[in-house]
Amino acid sequence: MSEVNNTATFTTIIETSTAEISNGWSGSSIGTILIVLLVTITGLVVGGYFIYRKLKERRRNHGEYRPQFEEYQHAKNLPYLQPPCIEGLI
Predict the structure, then answer these.
(1) pLDDT (tens digit, 9 = 90+) per residue, 12-36?
(2) How far are the Cα atoms of 16, 19, 21 from residue 13, in angstroms, in the given order?
(3) How far apart are the C-alpha atoms of 70 and 65, rounded to whole Å?
(4) Membrane-spanning regions, if any (predicted)?
(5) pTM score, two decimals?
């Protein structure tokens, strides 16, 4: 009796990749994000400094009497007056 041996040979090939799995962040994108972050922080610091100076000046001048400024503000609200007729002055 002859026995027929039907065996199938399966070869499994496993390919290993030596390339690292990229998470999507390249060097240029990280650099861009850092630059934008630094510019934003610098802008906020500079803006905060100018607001601080403005508030400090406003507090220092609060309650100070400045007659020239007061006269100018009240003069803006006066109606326009026509100059007198020159013939009537002679």
Answers:
(1) 666 665 555 556 778 888 999 999 9
(2) 10, 18, 21
(3) 8
(4) 30-52
(5) 0.44
